[in-house]
Each structure stands twice: as structure tokens, then as C-alpha cells.
């Protein structure tokens, strides 16, 4: 949180009308920032005494020097460690599945999902995540939310969205799995498609509805009635149609896939990323490494579902307890990381309460990842996955002025990222928590 020492330095550096009581003024447009310490995520070095200049929401200059040399008003971040704005590459902002029966998808008007999304977007941004990749939302509410944030109507992170997940009849995400057949016909929030012609049309429909990427269910899932996470869904041929049609329109494909067979199908079809990979095997890890496929491994949602919530998955053919399942998932995370597969930070937000995203960093370290690589997964690696490496992921001239400020050194204690004091998005102060 913002301590009074920070407020006092702000009092010196900025005229009184720009200040809010006990906080840094929200929605303040910055032109200069003095950073006592910031993390260069590429080199892994903590750099000191930087004067960052901002023009049009982007970093226009980074100079070394004391703050006494700065002319005019500036934001003084002495006493803080500054990092690039974080990226979560697997969210569901319009979903509150963690509420269980208290969030009854089938009884809610479509507009409710947008309202929920707006609330969750604010929580996510204020937790330090200035960019998200939102991978499947009902009724294209993610498209509407992305555009509302871009227009300044709603406070939230920069969004890259997939719209509805493409899934087979009876596949993961099919609401009809909970319904009588006559209800399924008129109520389905995702894109049900079978065979080459239907999946091609589903991609084209998504393109028309202005998505940024395509999400496809390549296996069953934990959260869908009647599906088995380890079982493959689409054939390689169907997945290739999805990938090829997406590429025609400049879109990447993210594949939900737990079991090894479904992961192999998706990787061989040319998807950009595998989401979850909770049952991956050694052969499939090697295949992902060979094909340069990203892994987005959501340890936080797995821990929340299996351990914290102790969800009953007796119908999923797991053959082990929840604790054993989570231990297996963390072991496979370690194997994937040590094999050199590119791991992008993604948490499956919505399975757990939004705003807790940064808790995953410690879980990644517990599973064998270094602190620096965990941070890189949520900055430069995730930026590459989104094909946004020219815009986000580093504190570098030309990139968006997206910063977070924390007390302490995240390379020594990653948990400091769970308590972000200040968030800046495109040079605008978004949140500055009071004591």
C-alpha cells in the first residue's frame, strides 16, 4: 500500500490540487517519473536512479540521474521497486465460477455477465495486471468489455479476447451438458461445432465479431459435466482447419487441453498455446519444445479447485485424491519448465476469486521455477505470446508506460507482488492504495 512517506514525497513533487486525500491522485496523467529501483526483466538486473519520461502513454526516454535534476512536476517512486505492468494470459473476467451455485450461469441475463466483467476488470487491474488475454466468455461479453475499457467507459486492463470457446457437441464448455435436449437448442453460450465445415464457420463467425484470438477445447474439462479431462475432443484434422482459418485472419489459437492425446493433436495442428496441460507426458513435452508451443499452466486455479475448495471430481477418472492430483500437476509443471518449454503466466481467473492472480508466482517458484523466470513469464514471455512484444512487457523506450510499484525486492520475496502499492497504465495513475 502507499505509505505516508510516499505521500510526503508526492506532496513535494506535485501541486496540491492534483492530490487526493491520503493517496496519490487517481487518473493523474504523468509526464515524468523518478524511479529509485526498477527491474530490467530481460537482463534480470535491478537498475537504479532512472528518470522516465512519458509521452502519449508511452515511454519516450529513460535517463539516469538524481531526482534533483528533474525540472517541473514528477512522480517520486523513491523507496519502491518498480516493474512492468503484469500480464495474465488466461483469464475469464466475465465469469465468477468460484462462487459455485451462487453464480448460476443459466438463470442470469446475458447483460449480467458484462456487469460482472466490469467489476472483475477493475479488481484485476488494481492487482497489478495491466494486460490480460481473456480466453472464452459467454455471449461475447469479453469483446464488449475490451471495447468499453479501450473507450475509457470502464476501468480495467488492456484485453485480448477470444469470444466464445469453440467446442464439439457435448464438449468442454457446452452448457447443454447440464440441460435437457430441448433447452440446449436455445441456450448455449459457446460455439458448438463439429467437422471441418462447422469449425471453419465458427472461426469466421468469431472474426466477424472482432475477436483477437481463437480458443478451442481440445479435451474435456474439470468444470464441465459429462466430460473427461484426459480425453481428446477434436481430431487433428478439425484442429488444423481451425488453425489454418484463424491464420488467414491473423489470429492465433489457444487450445484448452489436459490429456496428452489432446495436447498432441493440438500441437500437431499448429496451435500457438496449450492451456492447462495438467496430464502432459514426456513425449508431449518434447513435442511442444520442438514446435515452440507455449504452455499456459494455471497452478493457482488448480490449487484453489483441488485443495482450497476441495471440489469433488469423482466423475473425472482421475484415479487419485485431490492432493495427489495437485502434486502431479506441480511435478509436470517442473518437468515442462526444465525441458525449456516457454511458459506464459496464466491463472484461469474466474475459477478462483479475481484479484488474487499474483498468488500464482509463489506456486510457480514452489514448483521449481526461479523468481526471475516467474516474473518473466508474466512480462516478456506473455507479451511474446500475445504478439505484443513491441508494446508491453518491459520498461523500455517505445513501450506503453505500464508500471507497478511494490515495497521490497520481488527477486528475494515474490510475495511482494501480491500487495501492489501503485498501478500505472499508459502513464495514468490507476490506483494508489491508502494506509
Show the helix and strand layout:
Blueprint: H1 4-13, E1 32-40, E2 45-55, E3 58-64, E4 75-84, E5 86-91, H2 110-126, E6 129-134, H3 141-150, E7 158-161, E8 166-167, H4 181-186, E9 191-192, H5 195-208, E10 213-217, H6 236-248, E11 252-259, H7 260-269, E12 273-279, H8 282-291, E13 294-296, H9 299-308, H10 322-338, E14 343-344, H11 359-366, H12 371-377, H13 380-385, E15 403-406, E16 422-425, E17 428-432
Parallel strand pairs: 1-4, 5-6, 6-7, 8-9, 10-11, 11-12, 12-13, 13-14
Antiparallel strand pairs: 1-2, 2-3, 4-15, 15-16, 16-17
Helix pairs in contact: 2-3, 5-6, 6-7, 7-8, 9-10
Signal peptide: 1-20
Protein name: Amidohydrolase family protein
Organism: Hyphococcus flavus
Main beta-sheet strand count, sense and barrel state? 7 strands, mixed
Number of helical elements: 13
Main sheet strand line-up = 3-2-1-4-15-16-17
Class of secondary structure makeup: alpha/beta
Keywords: Signal
Signal peptide: 1-20
Protein name: Amidohydrolase family protein
GO molecular function, one term: hydrolase activity, acting on carbon-nitrogen (but not peptide) bonds
What would you say this structure looks like, in words?
With about 425 residues, this protein is α/β, with parallel strands linked by helices. The chain is built from 13 helices and 17 strands. It has helices at about 5-15, 110-125, 140-150, 180-185, 195-210, 235-250, 260-270, 280-290, 300-310, 320-340, 360-365, 370-375, 380-385; strands spanning about 30-40, 45-55, 60-65, 75-85, 85-90, 130-135, 160, 165, 190, 215, 250-260, 275-280, 295, 345, 405, 420-425, 430. The strands form 4 sheets. A 7-stranded mixed β-sheet has the order 3-2-1-4-15-16-17. Helix 2 (about 110-125) packs across helix 3, helix 5 (about 195-210) packs parallel to helix 6 and helix 6 packs across helix 7 (about 260-270).
